[in-house]
Each structure stands twice: as structure tokens, then as C-alpha cells.
Write a structure and sequence with these properties.
Layout (H helix, E strand, L loop, with lengths): L4 H12 L5 E5 L6 H17 L6 E5 L6 H4 L4 E6 L2 E16 L2 E8 L4 E7 L6 E4 L17 H9 L1
Parallel strand pairs: 1-3
Antiparallel strand pairs: 1-7, 2-5, 3-4, 4-5, 4-6
């Protein structure tokens, strides 16, 4: 049986339904996971001292068009030193206004989940992370890694 293009789109949409959409972003200014951890803890401390909601967020120019898919369990995968190496669960995507221009606040969980390192070239902004490119969490089945690499990335 041969499917028309509209029918093929329906099949693709149905097979992908319910799967969370992930986002990947360069962690500009951080050279290690340790540095990211310190930065985020300091940020949360400052927010509490200022009596502001203690939540981590990254402000970006554009709201993801696939917002609902991202909010169905998507994570923000950070690229540090040319490697996707850690993720944080996305809690919310909310509009914020800065300088009269609407932006998107990607609000994410404080828990850092290390993932099997995967190379990723530099890019601007954020990108959707294709399901085939999502690295497994370290400690999960099939996520073997070199422990020396892990120590090196964490210690910088």
C-alpha cells in the first residue's frame, strides 16, 4: 500500500505523539560541570536573598513552537566544551518582557543529570534535540563511559 504525503504526515505525527521534545543549548561561559553547578547554586542563593522565586531559568528570544511537546517531560541539554554532558528537566516555558520585547524564559529543575557525553558543534541560540541524538543518562543501561573523562570535566 502506498501512502500519500498527507497520510505519511499523520503516521509520523501519531508515532511521535506523547514523546517529549528536548532542547539543546551551549553553556556559554562555563568550562566544566563543576563551574555550572557553582554558578547555579550562587544564582539560587542570590534569588532567595532578594526574596525572589528561587528558580533557574534561561531567557531566550523565541518561544519554542513545540512548547507543549517540550512541557511533556522535555529536558534542557547543556553543551560544555563541545560535548552534550548534562541535562536539566524543563519545568516551564513562559513569556517575559525585556526592554519592551517579548522573550521566553526556559525554567528548569535544579537537579543536574549527567549524560553519556556526545559531541556537539557550536551553534547560536537553542535547538531542538532529535530523539536519535538524545544521550542516555549516566548509570542507565548502555551508558558506559571513561571515568577519567568524567573527573576531568568536573574538576575544571
Amino acid at each position: 500500500m502506498r501512502l500519500s504525503l498527507p497520510d505519511m504526515r499523520k503516521v509520523i505525527t501519531k508515532s511521535d505523539a506523547g514523546a517529549p521534545q528536548h532542547i539543546v543549548k551551549l553553556c556559554v561561559g562555563c568550562d566544566s560541570l563543576g563551574e555550572l553547578t557553582v554558578w547555579q547554586k550562587q544564582f539560587l542563593k542570590e534569588m532567595k536573598q532578594a526574596h525572589q522565586p528561587a528558580e533557574l531559568m534561561h531567557i531566550t528570544r523565541h518561544m519554542p513552537k513545540r512548547r507543549l511537546e517540550v512541557l511533556e517531560g522535555g529536558s534542557l541539554y547543556w553543551v560544555i566544551g563541545g560535548l552534550i554532558c548534562v541535562r536539566q528537566r524543563i519545568l516551564d516555558l513562559r513569556p517575559v518582557v525585556r526592554g519592551g520585547i517579548t522573550h521566553c524564559a526556559i525554567v528548569y529543575d535544579a537537579k543536574l543529570v549527567k549524560v553519556l557525553p556526545r559531541p556537539r558543534r557550536a551553534f547560536q541560540g537553542w535547538r531542538y534535540l532529535d530523539a536519535a541524538d538524545v544521550p542516555p543518562d549516566l548509570g542507565s543501561k548502555g551508558a558506559d563511559f571513561d571515568p577519567d573523562w568524567d573527573k576531568e570535566l568536573w574538576s575544571n
